[in-house]
Amino acid sequence: xxxxxxxxxxxxxxxxxxxxxxxxxxxxxxxxxAAVAATANGANSTNSGNGPNGGLxxxxxxxxxxxxxxxxxxxxxxxxxxxQFQSIAADGGxxxxxxxxxxxxxxxxxxxxxxxxxxxxxxxxxxxxxxxxDQQAAYxxxxxxATANGAxxxxxxxxxxxxxxxxxxxxxxxxxTKAAAQAVAAGARNQAAxxxxxxxxxxxxxxxxxxxxxxxxxGVHTCPQSAARFTNWLLDQLHGQFAGFNPAPAQAWAxxxxxxxxxxxxx
Length: 267
Hints:
Elements: H1 3-24, E1 37-38, E2 58-62, H2 65-80, E3 84-87, H3 101-115, E4 119-123, H4 132-148, E5 152-156, H5 171-175, H6 177-186, E6 192-195, H7 198-201, E7 208-209, E8 212-213, H8 224-241
Parallel strand pairs: 2-3, 2-4, 4-5, 5-6
Antiparallel strand pairs: 1-3, 7-8
Helix pairs in contact: 1-8, 2-8, 4-6
């Protein structure tokens, strides 16, 4: 993102991003963030509106570089909502099968155990390549790891991408990830669910939306507007899963500085 773009968002961020969130609608007007992890005012604090947050004590977020960008507004939104949040999303990785997954699994169980989340959110990664059998086995392994640590697992479908030469051979694999996750969640006895984010992204990659940059020009990544919209959507979904959780309004997080992050590019 250019410096000029950063300054524009800094001056008009609340209006632009709050509008993006409102367009998504729902129970909440959520999210925004700044760092890799955000904690409420004290490890166990809640606000009077949230009470105990309906069991939503800590959210652990896992995924690839798309999720890294999404974690920025998410961190601010969860902080404003007095819920602990930690992201272990990773550039060039964060996947549970496909490239680098063997290395990821050497550290992932320990990361989940040490985080002690009540909910593990997995943004399905653009590297989740393999047959549906391979995908289901990896997602089942992730579910077993989450539940062994007392966490509910929520799969989130990935945004549509514009395939380049790198991704083109794997588009059929990525198209199966939702079905693979649903198959795993179907037998999980309320320990897992699949959240379909199609309402956030639309049916196909769209670089601009409402006259503003929405997705990166690289055909894969997000821009601040879409990351904010995703955040609002996810917090609304969590409100549906945890009735005691009431996300902070967009005005509490939208202009918190995260939109100027260099993690956003091609916007």
